[in-house]
Amino acid sequence: MPPDHAAPPLDVDRILADPGVRIVVCCGAGGVGKTTTAAALALRAAERHGRRTVVLTIDPARRLAQSLGLTELDNTPRQVKGIEVEASGGELHAMMLDMKRTFDEVVLAHTDTDKAAEIFANPFYQAMSSTFAGTQEYMAMEKLGQLHAGGEWDLIVVDTPPSRSALDFLDAPARLARFLDGRMLRLLLAPARAGGRSMFSLVTASFGVFSRAVQKILGAQLLSDLSGFVAALDSMFGGFRQRAEQTYRVLQADETAFLLVAAPEPDAVREAAYFAGRLGAERMPLAGLVLNRVHEPAVPGLSAERSLTAARELDRDGGHPATAEVLRVHAAVAQQSARERRVAAMFTDAFPQVPVATVRARPADVHDIDGLRTIGHAVAG
User: Fold this and answer.
1) Average model confidence (pLDDT) for the chain?
2) Cα gap 255→241, rounded to integer Å
3) How far apart are CA 255 and CA 67, in angstroms?
4) CA distance linking residue 314 with residue 113, whole number of Å
5) Distant-in-sequence contacts of 203-210, Cβ < 8 A, 24+ apart
6) pLDDT at residue 259, rounded to an integer
7) Which helix (H) or strand (E) segment is 329 a member of?
8) Who contacts 170 (Cβ-Cβ below 8 Å, separation ≥6)?
9) In what order do the strands lie in the sheet with 78-79?
């Protein structure tokens, strides 16, 4: 279903086959088929283009593992068996982000064993690494950076959370920098860096009203845990920032291609347009839009009006009732297709140069390799 103001077609195979493209990031609102699209593109890259591919999902849903025939996914890439790569020589691996395990890996990689044990035992670290808002997005950046830096993969396909969370994915380095540069953090670090005196005596002596106010709000134990956590991680903060900023630069580079995924529904298309604007502002390469689950009439030349008129004439003249019902179904699909074209134009009018691929609605959800292969073929046109 090309929009009324036809956008240029999206050449997905050119992107997947290009050895200069090492990362494809799929973004979009929830419930639009983004996880399925990411898996289908990764499968196509491995089977058709012979690339050693890994698909990373940040969405906690388990659909990706099920559709790839895996019992589960975790923080380590698992190879997908039974795919058609004999001729191409490609490979497909899949994984799902475990933010706590990723945080633990970062700590172990950048500090000694005793310091790591101290960090792991800290209650504030235990909470932050498991539940704090923003940790998942930052750890996603860490994991993507690890996969990219290892040089093991020809192509990394990233399936992000719904788009507002995916924007958090993009914002993670900046938020981390603000945290590291924040006044409260510097105050909490000061006693740990000074050494020699107890944390609370130094905080109280140095910051007076501030420390008493913080202690009153947070509680003495939580403040102690927080200061201990900050002190233990102090030597690692520079590395956190550096790696996050490096991954951010990778996302701005030509080796990355962002693909927006949307259904032809107003909210999903608005989300896609909002995200496209952000990518432009951040100078990140937007490769195109995948418009998923579109409807097209089987006989495009037969308008809804003519179809309904014919159905009424059959009813009046005592014609075959099944034929009249088929005409009404056709009219309903034609009307829905017209609505979807108007909705799609909300994006294509705002971003006329962004290539678009369309994928027809399917009667059932994708749940296996064959279904993913069909989706990949449809996205590629």
Assistant:
1) 82
2) 22
3) 27
4) 82
5) 203/227
6) 97
7) helix 321-350
8) 248, 251, 278, 282, 284
9) 78-79, 91-96, 52-57, 155-162, 23-28, 256-262, 286-294, 356-360
Contact 256, 21 (CB under 8 A): yes
Burial of 361 (0-12, 13-18, 19+ CB in 10 A): middle
> What is the Cα 113 distance to its own chain's centre?
33
Question: Under 8 Å CB-to-CB from 340, ≥6 apart: which residues?
Answer: 1, 264, 294, 295
Specify the length of the chain in residues: 381
Q: Per DSSP, what are the bridge partners of residue 13?
A: none
The tens digit of pLDDT for each residue in 37-86 reads 999 999 999 999 999 999 998 766 666 777 787 877 888 899 999 899 98
- CA–CA gap between residue 4 and residue 10 (Å, rounded): 16
Q: Which of 58, 100, 153, 110 is nearest to 243 (CA)?
A: 110
**pLDDT confidence of 89, banded at 50, 70, 90?**
very high
Predicted pLDDT of residue 372: 93
Decide: 256 and 155 in contact? Cβ < 8 Å. no
Q: How far, in Å, CA of 347 to CA of 196, rounded?
A: 61
Mean pLDDT value across residues 219-227: 60
Which two tokens mark 197? Answer: 């005196």
How would residue 284 be classed by pLDDT, with cut points 50, 70 and 90?
A: very high
CA 189 – CA 228 distance, rounded (Å): 9
Q: Which amino acid is at 158?
A: V
Closest CA to 292 of 35, 102, 72: 35
Verdict on whether the full-model pTM lies above 0.90:
no
Q: Which pair of structure tokens corresponds to residue 1?
A: 């279903």
Rounded-to-integer distance, Cα 232 and Cα 105, Å: 16
Using an 8 Å Cβ cutoff, are 247 and 148 in contact? yes
Q: Please state, in angstroms and rounded to a whole number, the distance separating the CA atoms of residues 357 and 170.
A: 24
The model's pLDDT over 241-276, given as tens digits with 9 standing for 90+, comes to 777 788 889 999 999 999 999 999 999 999 999 999
215-248: buried (b, 16+ CB within 10 Å) or exposed (e) per residue? beeeeeeebbbbbbbbbbbeebeeebbebbeebb
Task: Using alpha carbons, list the distances in angstroms from residue 302 to 166, 328, 334, 358.
Answer: 41, 12, 8, 21
Contacts of 13 (CB under 8 A, 6+ apart): 44, 48, 49, 380
